[in-house]
Design goal:
The complex is a heterodimer of chains A (300) and B (263). By secondary structure, chain A is mainly α. Chain A is built from 13 helices and two strands; from the N terminus they run αααααααββαααααα. Chain A has one domain (75-299): Orthogonal Bundle (MetI-like fold), CATH 1.10.3720.10. The longest helix of chain A is centred in the first third of the chain and has 32 residues, at 77-108. Chain B has a domain at 110-175. Chain B is built from ten helices and twelve strands. In chain B, α4 (115-125) packs across α5 (131-144). Chain B is globular, with a radius of gyration of 18 Å. Classes of the chains: A mainly alpha (300), B alpha/beta (263). Chain A binds chain B through residues 200-201, 203-212, 214, 218-219, 222-223, 226, 300, and chain B through 59, 61, 90-91, 94-95, 97-98, 100-102, 104, 106, 108-112, 121-122, 125-126, 154, 170-171, 174. Chain A: GO terms for molecular function: transmembrane transporter activity. Chain A: It is found in: Cell membrane.
């Protein structure tokens, strides 16, 4: 999940090194050097260009893809509404997942074996069950649980109760599924962040008279969140992509809408291209935002 | 303060018959130590002699296995009821620690806070001092440790010596009755040791605090300590006025240690 971070970091470092080397070279450019020929690179470059051109041409001149239809639907109200739903589902799920992840991560490092065992089980299940399975489970929750109820466990006493089938909209099911799955992964990331704060910080807080909760709130979490920002950005991007899976329970997202339209006009590929363009566009924007957040974090 | 007056005043810190084990390893053996109010005590001894552990026991960063430690009227870490010790609740333990400040070898400043925030943070959150008052007091303390110009710097932008001076100001800001120093200059580059020792000397002279310092700085101990305590192998070997312990040690272990340190 942190691949993105690593890539950008190495990228920027090697960039810096190159700059240095280049300035050194210009200073000592009086040496007349014949550079080594890299034949392998040349061959790969030629192959790359050929592949690229044939893919673009294959798509552009393909008689089975009607590009005007792509253009027609790219900004259609239905597609834009679906895109809005995708963003909404992702953002809401991300917030819930993050809150759950912090709670589970804190439970995971609890000295109580029961508490940390519960958290470990939570992570095991929600990381282990494929998202699509989880979503279908949540979407069909009404089949095996009749009511959401608040009451005293293991008794018939209930204070509040509502039938599952009435409240479980596809949107809610999508948010629950994505939040649970996301929180499983993020809990482990958050736990790593919490553990990265050294013993000295805990002791300094203790010596000043801070209790465990305050140490967490004022000393550990602010430092951990800084460490966690880049991987959380990656999680957000992953979740945006994962949100397409909610189309299996008709979550009303971009892909649900695109597939819905193609169901009536039979232009499946064109509408998939429409969805793809939007996904790539949003992810590009998010990646740029993440780049700047990472840069700011690294500067501190 | 001389040895006679100590016995008259009720001790500020009282360590009675303390043993401490780390797993199978006994690191403190039957430690008895009384420190009077306002006294400055330097704990010296070879590494691994248990000086730091003893210090950490005094503010309950470590738990003791036998004996009692008292600071003022507080029995550290426990409440004694009908002959049994009850572990203190978290907020009670926190309350006790507020009275005992600590300065660490590795400074342990909070890296996400500026120097000023590091100092003002705990008084605001724990002592409920009004924000403006806490900040103005933090500025006064920064000035006192010679860092008025560094108020808005983050720890990573300060040298080791500067960080340790901020850490001292942070501990003092809580107005503790007892201040513990755990090898405050051991992690510093040699040229930065002096500035930290100066701040500590100033503190000893002017602040009305009971101060315990674990140190390898014999010159400092000689200059400011009321009493020097020598520890070896988890035992309290010898103690007395600095001149007495450092210049004419009675115990063979003390002589051996001092001849190795003072060249």
């Amino acid at each position: 999940m942190t691949e993105g971070t690593v890539v950008t970091e190495t990228g920027s470092t090697s960039g810096r090194v190159n700059l240095k080397t280049r300035s050194l070279l210009t200073r000592e450019n009086k040496l007349n050097v014949v550079p080594v020929r890299h034949w392998g690179r040349g061959v790969l470059a030629v192959v790359s260009v050929i592949v690229l051109i044939s893919v673009v041409l294959g798509l552009w001149t393909n008689p089975n893809i009607q590009w005007p239809i792509v253009g027609e639907f790219l900004f259609s109200p239905a597609i834009l509404k679906g895109l809005g739903t995708t963003l909404e589902i992702t953002a809401v799920s991300m917030v819930f997942a993050l809150v759950l992840a912090v709670v589970i991560a804190v439970m995971r490092i609890s000295p109580s074996r029961i508490v940390s065992g519960f958290a470990a089980g939570y992570v095991f299940i929600f990381r282990g069950v494929p998202l699509i399975v989880l979503l279908i489970f949540v979407g069909n929750l009404g089949l095996f649980f009749q009511n959401f109820a608040i009451g005293i466990p293991f008794t018939d006493i209930t204070f509040w109760s509502v039938p599952v089938k009435e409240v479980m909209t596809p949107f809610l099911a999508s948010v629950i599924g994505l939040s649970l799955a996301g929180s499983g992964y993020m809990a482990e990331i958050v736990r790593g962040g919490l553990l990265s704060i050294g013993r000295g910080q805990h002791e300094a807080a203790k010596a000043l008279g801070l209790n465990g909760a305050r140490t967490l709130r004022y000393v550990v979490l602010p430092q951990a969140l800084r460490v966690l920002l880049p991987p959380m950005g990656n999680e957000f991007i992953s979740m945006l992509k994962a949100s397409a899976i909610v189309s299996v329970i008709a979550g009303g997202d971009l892909l649900t809408v695109a597939l819905g339209i193609s169901g009536s006009n039979f232009r499946t590929i064109e509408l998939l291209i429409v969805a793809t363009i939007w996904y790539l566009l949003v992810i590009t924007v998010l990646t740029i935002v993440q780049y700047f957040i990472e840069k700011r974090t690294a500067e501190r | 303060m001389t040895a006679e007056t100590q016995t008259l005043v009720r001790p500020m810190v009282s360590v009675e018959g303390v043993d401490k084990w780390f797993g199978q390893n006994q690191v403190l053996f039957d430690i008895d130590l009384q420190i009077a109010e306002g006294e400055t005590v330097c704990l010296i001894g070879p590494s691994g002699s248990g000086k730091s552990t003893l210090l950490r026991c005094i503010n309950h960063l470590e738990e003791i296995n036998t004996g009692r430690i008292r600071v003022g009227d507080d029995l550290i870490g426990y409440r004694e009821k009908r002959g049994r010790l009850h572990e203190l609740k978290e907020h009670e333990a926190c309350h006790q620690r507020v009275r005992v400040g600590m300065v660490f070898q590795q400074f342990n400043l909070f890296p996400h806070m500026t120097a000023l925030e590091n100092i003002a943070f705990a008084p605001i959150k724990i002592l409920r001092v009004p924000k403006a008052e806490a900040i103005s007091r933090a500025r006064t303390l920064l000035e006192r440790v010679g860092l008025a110009a560094k108020a808005d710097f983050y720890p990573s932008q300060l040298s080791g010596g500067q960080q340790q001076r901020v850490a001292i100001a942070r501990a003092v800001a809580m107005r503790p009755t007892v201040l513990l120093f755990d090898e405050p200059t051991s992690a510093l580059d040699p040229e930065l040791v002096g500035e930290v020792l100066e701040v500590m000397k100033d503190l000893v002279r002017t602040a009305n605090m009971t101060i315990v310092v674990v140190t390898h700085e014999m010159g400092f101990a000689r200059e400011v300590a009321d009493r020097v305590v020598f520890m070896a192998d988890g035992r309290l070997v010898e103690q007395g006025e600095p001149a007495q312990v450092l210049d004419s040690p009675q115990n063979a272990r003390t002589r051996e240690f001092l001849s190795a340190v003072i060249r």
